Amino acid sequence: MQKNEECKKPQLVVMLTYNDLTVANAEEIFEECKCSDAQIWGFKEKPLPIDRMKALYGKMKSCGKTTCLEVVAYTEDEGMEGARIAAECVCDVLMGTKFSSKIADFCRLHNIKYMPFVGTITGRPSVLAGTPEEMIAEALDALKGGAYGIDLLGYRYVGDALDLNKRITAAVPAPVCIAGSIDSYERLDEIIETSPSAFTIGSAFFNHKFGGDIKNQINSVCRYVANEPVKV
Q1: Which spans in the chain are helix H?
Q2: Residues 2-11: what's their mean pLDDT?
Q3: Is it the case that residue 229 has pLDDT exceeding 70?
Q4: Which residues in 1-25 are b (16+ Cβ under 10 Å) and which e?
């Protein structure tokens, strides 16, 4: 994931997840889709056991993929446990958690890019609340504290999601990944307009929101965002 001004098109992060949990057949799906157009892959900290997580991330790395672990947890202790999992799995990016300088320092020591959530988040699947002004201030503080970028649950927002996405992306001078509930070509149009560094899709692929099998959906989304011909 690159800084917003350096990335011409938002990058798709394929999440092997459904309702904020890693799917049981994540390894099989990656094997089927490893030659798709997507470069960045990830999943959640639950419920796969650590040995399967390590093996799957190792397979992704062997295929030249950038790897992400998204931790849907909001306390520092839970976030630190997620960071330790990311380090053990040699992940490139830790997404999620609420910002903590302790987590940031740990990620720096282990060469992990840290992209925490902003706002008031509850539940799983997550729901986002708070004002854009509060979230911008929180994001800027996180960057000063060592975060690489921000994980924004924009379409989980209880208010105007498009306005929030635009304001956060414009105000934060670092990578912003819009995560969760991107489930239509209309929302892809909004992503293109907003131009974050990256965006995640997980459940929508399993619900066939972008067509047929997952590999074809991944390619369709990548090509749509890149403004290449797609059968919609």
Answers
A1: 26-33, 50-62, 76-88, 101-109, 132-144, 161-171, 185-194, 203-206, 214-225
A2: 66
A3: no
A4: beebeeeeebbbbbbbbbebbbbee
**β-sheet bridge partners, residue 69:** 43, 94
Structural contact between residues 203 and 18, judged by C-beta atoms closer than 8 angstroms: yes
Phi and psi, residue 198, nearest 5° = -155, 170
Is the Cβ–Cβ distance between 30 and 59 less than 8 Å? yes
Rounded to 5 degrees, what angle do the CA atoms 171, 172, 173 make?
A: 115
Quote the percentage of the chain above a pLDDT of 70: 95
- Here the tokens at position 85 are 């999992």
Mean pLDDT of the region 131-140? 98
For 127, half-sphere exposure in the C-beta direction (CA atoms, 13 angstrom radius) is: 5
**Sign of torsion, CA 186 192 194 199?**
positive
Cβ contacts of 224 within 8 Å, gap of 6 or more = 185, 188, 230, 232
Q: Identify residue 59 by its one-letter amino acid code.
A: K
- Residue ranges of domains in the chain, CATH in brackets: 4-225 (3.20.20.70)
Question: Cis bond leading into 125, ω under 30°?
Answer: yes
Mean pLDDT over each residue of the chain, to the nearest integer: 95
